[in-house]
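The authors assume throughout that readers already know how a fold can be written as discrete tokens. For illustration, here is how one protein appears when written out as sequence plus structure tokens:
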Amino acid sequence: MAAAMKHLEEALAADPGETWLAKPKRPMTLAKEAALDKAMTQRQTRGHLPPALLPLPPPEDLGLVPGVLRRHTRQPRLLHRSPGPAPFGRLTREDHLMQAHRPAVFGALLGLIRAASAAGDFWVQNDFCARVKGASDEHPVTYEDPVTEKKTVHGTADGRKACLEHCLTYVATQAIVAGLGARALGIKVHPAAAAAALAISFGTHYAADRRVPGAGLLEKLATKTGKGGLYRLADFGINGAFHLDNAWHHGWETVAALIATTGAETR
């Protein structure tokens, strides 16, 4: 150690102005400065923020080094809403933010659809549809008009028309209630998702409500699953067919509400 220090002292004494201990740095060229800026930007954005979200430089710095800060002039797209809804099945950055709130949107739409279903099934449906929608040629239904007390007999064709009319008013009630409720809550449902949800509601409701004795979907399903006794139960204040029918509708309404959240946005 002493020998090294002595050698250093001799070297400094021989040439006090020697600069071999620290070589001077050369001035950085614009090209090197641009390359360094690009490399540092790539390191900052790798695994962190996308380039469009980097903070903008001060306005007075823009244009000082042409070509270096040009890429920073891009405005963050996250702060601007898209001019219209994204194509069904394709999500934008705004849509990804909406996915974080999708459970809340699902709960809101399910509540709206459930309320609309009850209204459409019991308040909007008329007495004629309720009595005739399960009629068939093998099991005709005799309907008595409550006003004129006129009796008419209806078969398969009239049963299908009555069930179709009921399902149309049922789905229309769902569309109106869910649409107005979603707008009030600031939810923008994608048109394709809404159409798919209403189509599922319409098809499953028609299949269940076309209750032809011995040939209805729910009656066959209940018999095969060991619930035939419950389906035929109509005593002790319990109507088994009514409860199984409601359970069927509730399940498909949940599926429809889940589909309706696809591509949903906030207003």
Observations:
- The radius of gyration is 36 Å.
- The beta strands are 141-144, 151-154, 187-188, 234-235, 238-239, 265-266.
